What does this fold into?
Amino acid sequence: MIDLGAADADDGFAARCAADQAFLGLELAADGTASFALTGGLARHDRRLYGGTAVAAAIALAEHASGRPALWTTVQFVSGATVVGDRIDCRVDVLAAGHRTTQLRVTAHVGDQELFCALGATATPKAGSLSGVFEEPPAVLEPELCEPFRFPLPKSMRGTEMDLERLMDIRVARARDDAPRPVGQLLFWARVPDHRASPAILGFLADMVPMSVVHATGHMGGGTSLDNTLRVGQPAATEWVLLQLDPHLAQGGYGHGTGHLWSPDGALLATASQTASLIVLD
Amino acid sequence: MIDLGAADADDGFAARCAADQAFLGLELAADGTASFALTGGLARHDRRLYGGTAVAAAIALAEHASGRPALWTTVQFVSGATVVGDRIDCRVDVLAAGHRTTQLRVTAHVGDQELFCALGATATPKAGSLSGVFEEPPAVLEPELCEPFRFPLPKSMRGTEMDLERLMDIRVARARDDAPRPVGQLLFWARVPDHRASPAILGFLADMVPMSVVHATGHMGGGTSLDNTLRVGQPAATEWVLLQLDPHLAQGGYGHGTGHLWSPDGALLATASQTASLIVLD
It folds into this structure.
């Protein structure tokens, strides 16, 4: 029995790990390697690997290898040269395993081509230690009252019948009041239907920051992520996640920004940050 | 001659790279590896490797290997088992070199022990592309009017004559007005004397976020960083940097937060983020 500490004890760690592995279709080998098939549900519009899928896989594999819940991960996207149907081979290296913290590296390949590399840590929370949230959740209407969001499509794909197959619901989160919001901030409700927002699922949902950077410049668009960083916060049993996307800056065709991921009742589930090569679609 | 693009053309890229290498004492070998000695000026109070030094080294090596200015890096601290006098061996792997972006990985060892691993990208800025800053710099007095900051010392080191040797000036940045600041936010002026705040130097200065997380809980302290992430923004020729440290949350003994690095005239030089194991010192 893995000791998850008081803060995570009732969270059903083993059950949520199993649910994450099933969602990704992860096949775990006895030698510590793993693989999964890139399906339409885990892909981008152009049927290449979706960045959030890489984050989710890195987290799921780090949690499996360490037996501890994820604390932080950064995924670097090395190559996008993969399409739906490819099998992605993953390897986990435990770099250091301490009393409370495990440091890991996850690398993923298709054949000889490195797709992504993730650094990260998992950690056993210490009961009774310092805690606090120093941000305020935005006041928005509940997801049931909000309209679905349709991702802006690249010009080459407009007018086609193709819809995003990705296993994700996303809605435009409407503010409860008329208070001014920070420049460029975007608010969405997002979920993977029938999946608890575990750290892996949070990583899957959070890959939206570049859209807010382009939005802040007065355009529609997004970006090709160079990395995704996720920092895991308060545990909460929720399916819907409020994505608060805050752009920092655009410079030289690249952009940086941050996301806060909130539960419907105001727990700060995680923070995210990203750098992307920006793409304007309007 | 390296083409740095219009946005960076007058920044003296080669000169600032040489200055960064000299600051770190980097010895570059012909086979692409490098090494440097851990000096007191690059260490923590306890004479172990300072996290900001690792970020600076990773950035300097990525810029040298790619001939492009740094865009983003994340450094994972695997082991702190090194002391002043050790020689740190570094290796740079170019994972992908594109038309504008190079993706790299830097690993550092003392003997057989991995100290840190960095992922990151360097990039040639695209002239005339999207740009903008979507944050406001805090209004503070200039550094000459602000008092030096003394880092809180671990209990074991109090009352000793030992002073921090690190090559860094740091001052408490005083607000110009009485407007309320966000919970836990800390503002410092920091510089490496006689060094321009290049991306490597920004990484050196930014390793302060955990202090703001502990501060937000009502204590003095800091943390052992698990990682440092730096995202590079607007270029500006400045020595002093305003560090705006914003804590996000503390949970289970760990904390996350963000830093914004501003020039004295309000350019957003970089953003930083970190996860740390928190330490209370009061």
